[in-house]
């Protein structure tokens, strides 16, 4: 609880995790009849929550309001256009338009376009063909989810799946299309599931013909090649791109000259 409570004083993404996971933890403690632990944990959480709420109410975070998708001018223009065309339809209300856009962005974070190809659309944190994962790694992650549900302790798997489902929410609530820095926790369970997938694949072919071992070896070699290519692009080509240079400088060098 103490470790999780420190998340309130970090980046906004971690606060969403806190708001979901602490009540979940409290429910688990209550259901397990550990009421003394529940009460102590609640008091500890309040020691962090109360100062946080006071600080947020006294100085509201303007950056968070500016990033929220509901304040985006493009979304507002879309809602006004729908309202003009369809009148008082419930599907042209701000609530529906914003909610629908949030759902679309949430689902898009599970696409290979984000996970294995583009990554962050802000060129300071990502670039075309520099995906956070390779397609092979993503394939092993999907296999790992399937095998983990069948062979591993269910509570641990559900925790990882819960993190996987919660992680895209901070990115979906903002107007930016893809954001790695707001969904970095998304890759923790994916990498764990990919490792499980590789391990289970190796165990599954242990007693089979050697051709299966050669096949898995070629697949893993392909993953190494794709990863090496991404690092080569990141270390050599990415820093020399004009758009990247301008975006990273962003006027700071001119400001420093005064």
What would you say this structure looks like, in words?
- It is a single chain.
- This protein is mainly α and 258 residues long.
- Helix content is 71%, strand content 0%.
- The chain has helices at 2-5, 12-31, 35-58, 62-67, 73-86, 94-108, 112-118, 135-151, 154-166, 169-172, 187-204, 210-237, 242-249, 252-256.
- Helix 2 (12-31) packs antiparallel against helix 3 (35-58) and helix 8 (135-151) runs antiparallel to helix 9 (154-166).
- The protein is globular and about 65 Å long.
- The relative contact order is 0.09.
- The mean pLDDT is 80.
Keywords summarizing the entry:
single chain; mainly alpha; 258 residues
Helix content: over 70%
Rounded Rg: 23 Å
* CA-based shape: globular
What is the residue-averaged pLDDT? 80
The tally of beta strands, per DSSP, is 0
Distance between the first and last residues' Cα: 48 Å
Global structural class = mainly alpha
| Main beta-sheet annotation | none
Q: How large is the count of helical segments? A: 14
In short:
This protein has 258 residues and is mostly helical. It has helices at residues 2-5, 12-31, 35-58, 62-67, 73-86, 94-108, 112-118, 135-151, 154-166, 169-172, 187-204, 210-237, 242-249, 252-256. The longest helix is centred in the last third of the chain and has 28 residues, at 210-237.
């Amino acid at each position: 609880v103490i470790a999780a409570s420190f998340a309130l004083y970090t980046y906004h993404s971690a606060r969403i995790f806190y708001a979901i996971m602490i009540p979940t933890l409290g429910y688990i403690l209550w259901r397990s009849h550990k009421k003394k632990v529940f009460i102590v944990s609640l008091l500890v959480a309040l020691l962090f929550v109360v100062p946080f709420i006071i600080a947020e109410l006294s100085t509201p975070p303007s950056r968070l309001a500016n990033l929220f998708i509901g304040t985006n001018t493009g979304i507002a223009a879309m809602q006004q256009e729908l309202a003009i065309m369809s009148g008082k339809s419930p599907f042209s209300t701000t609530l529906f338009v914003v909610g629908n856009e949030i759902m679309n962005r949430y689902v898009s974070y599970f696409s290979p376009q984000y996970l294995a190809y583009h990554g962050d659309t802000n060129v300071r944190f990502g670039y075309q063909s520099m995906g956070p994962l390779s397609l092979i790694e993503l394939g092993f992650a999907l296999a790992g989810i399937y095998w983990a549900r069948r062979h591993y302790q269910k509570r641990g798997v559900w925790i990882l799946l819960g993190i996987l489902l919660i992680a895209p929410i901070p990115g979906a609530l903002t107007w930016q299309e893809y954001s790695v820095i707001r969904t970095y926790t998304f890759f923790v369970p994916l990498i764990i599931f990919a490792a499980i997938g590789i391990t289970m694949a190796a165990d599954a072919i242990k007693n089979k013909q050697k051709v299966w071992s050669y096949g898995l070896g070629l697949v893993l070699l392909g993953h190494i090649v794709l990863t090496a290519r991404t690092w080569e692009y990141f270390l050599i080509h990415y820093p020399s791109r004009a758009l990247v240079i301008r975006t990273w400088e962003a006027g700071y060098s001119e400001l420093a000259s005064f």
